[in-house]
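Supplementary Text 2. Reproducibility record for the structural model of the 186-residue chain.

All settings were left at their defaults, and a single model was retained for analysis rather than an ensemble. We include the record here because the model underlies the residue-level annotations in Supplementary Table 4.
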Amino acid sequence: MNNKQLDPSRFAAVIFAAFALTVFISPFAAFAQEAPRITHGGFYATDRVRRGGSVQAAVALDVPQGFHVNANKPLGKYSVPTVVSVTASEGVRVSPVTYPRGSVRAFKFTDEKLAVYEGRPVMRFTLTVPANFQGTRAVVRARVKFQSCNDEVCFPPTTRDMELPIDVVGAGEPVRPTNTAFFRTL
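Retained model, structure tokens:
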């Protein structure tokens, strides 16, 4: 059996180091958290669009449980809103984007209540193809900017780009509904 005594100065140094780590590092622990993996996608309400017609389109985010993104109108003075910007092929028009209503909640990191999106927020717009459109395909380019947070901290804003191509057909050709989970009755 080894009967060594603990050196008091070494013991004090260990206690001080443990205390210093707790006091100085723990406030920054929230910032060391990893941002959530938020996926995104773009969808149309029909498989094709007719010349001279319109089709509803959507951009959706999938926000993991325990996280949220700020709403388009987040209420917080310093919150970065979710914004979807869309442009289309020449001659094709896109309507302004409509955003879902955010849920108003309180969080530990601010005294302000914030409007946020959780789960799967869907932002919608309409694509209109003129009757004289010459191409066989239209492309919408969407840019989504959002800031994700959990109950304790917000992460730096993120921007994601995507392309949403859709075939353009003659005015009398059939189109079929698709992606019905993202669209109300057509």
